[in-house]
Structures are given as C-alpha cells and as structure tokens.
From TrEMBL:
Ranges of biased composition (kind: Acidic residues): 1-22
Record GO cellular component, one term: nucleus
Main location: cytoplasm
Protein name: Radial spoke head 1 homolog
C-alpha cells in the first residue's frame, strides 16, 4: 500500500504572493500574529494561530479537494502532532516534521488496513505493525523506505512466520509455527528467473 497515493492529490498550501482574505489578530508590523482565519485564493481555508505572518501553533487547514489537517504548525509547515484526513478516506495521526510524516504515527488506509509505527521522511521506516483488514493478518517488524525489510513476524489466523524480509518477501532462515504445535524450519532463497 503506498503512503503517497492520496498525498499527491493534496493542493499546494497558500503561496506567499497571494495571501487571500484574513480576519484576525495582527502585530505592530501588520503581520498576521495571534489567532485568525484565512480564506485563500485557491479555495483553501485556515483557522488557527499565526506568528509573524506564518501559520505557527495549533490550526486547521481545509483543502478545496476535501483533505483536512488539524494540528501543529511551524512556519507554515505541519510540524508536531497532527491528524491529516485525505480525500480518499484515509487518515494519518501522529508526528510531523517539516511537512512530512516523521516520528511515530498511525495511518489508516482507504481499504481499512492500518500501519502503526515509525516514520521517516514520509515513509514507513523503523519498527511498525501493518494489519491487513481483509484477512486479519499482521506484519510486525522492520521497515525501510516504505518496504517490509529486516527481522519480522507475519502472523496469520492459524500460523505465523518468523524470519527476515527484503522488499516485502521472506529471505534467508526462518520458521513457520502452526497453532497445532508443529514448526517448520527452513531457508528462503532468491531464484534467478529465466526470461
């Protein structure tokens, strides 16, 4: 499941050149400062805190395409804790750094699957759990740049696999453990495919 599919439909946030209509507090320099509401030329709206003309602090940004972010900002960028609702019905709740999902958070995909764990530069990266809604299966373990990689356990309804993964596939030594009490130990090897 891609984490970027719905993110790419996100509208660009307000351009500095055209700030739109603003109703709210200002500082002595006339900059947006304090609490305010903005209606932007592209149809987006922002209701929240400003600091020296930038969205900073708590706020809600509603995109014309139906997306919505509620959370913390720092100099016009999502930064801190926040929830992003995407137009396709998916949702991310967690840490943001410099407009990117970064830190710890939970992403609920449009199909009902969930990922809970670590993020780095907008990708699942580190330790995390992905739950497949349709089957109830779970992948618990390592992620690298959005892919299942490293030590992990794939847990199904009546058995589980414990081993290493690379690009979403088991690789090397691992074992299947079945609920009836037996285990199967073995090794996965990559075979060259004849074209």
């Amino acid at each position: 499941m891609s984490d970027l599919s719905s993110e790419e439909t996100e509208e660009t946030e307000e351009a500095e050149a055209e700030l739109g209509e603003y109703d709210g507090e200002r500082n002595s320099e006339g900059e947006r400062h304090g609490r305010g509401k903005a209606h932007l030329p592209n149809g987006d709206t922002y209701d929240g805190e400003y600091e020296h003309g930038f969205r900073s602090g708590q706020g809600t940004y509603r995109f014309r395409n139906g997306a919505c972010y509620t959370g913390e900002y720092l100099q016009n960028k999502k930064h801190g804790q926040g929830i992003f609702f995407y137009p396709d019905g998916s949702k991310y709740e967690g840490d943001w750094v410099n407009d990117q999902r970064h830190g710890y958070g939970e992403y609920t995909y449009a199909n009902g699957d969930t990922y809970t764990g670590e993020w780095f530069n907008h990708n699942r990266h580190g330790q995390g759990t992905y739950v497949y809604k349709d089957t109830g299966s779970k992948y618990v373990g390592g992620w690298v740049n959005g892919n299942q990689e490293g030590e992990a356990e794939l847990i199904h309804l009546n058995h589980r696999f414990k081993g290493k993964f690379l690009n979403g596939n088991p690789i090397g030594r691992g074992k299947y453990v079945f609920d009836i009490g037996c285990e199967q130990h073995g090794e996965y090897i990559q075979l060259e495919q004849v074209k």
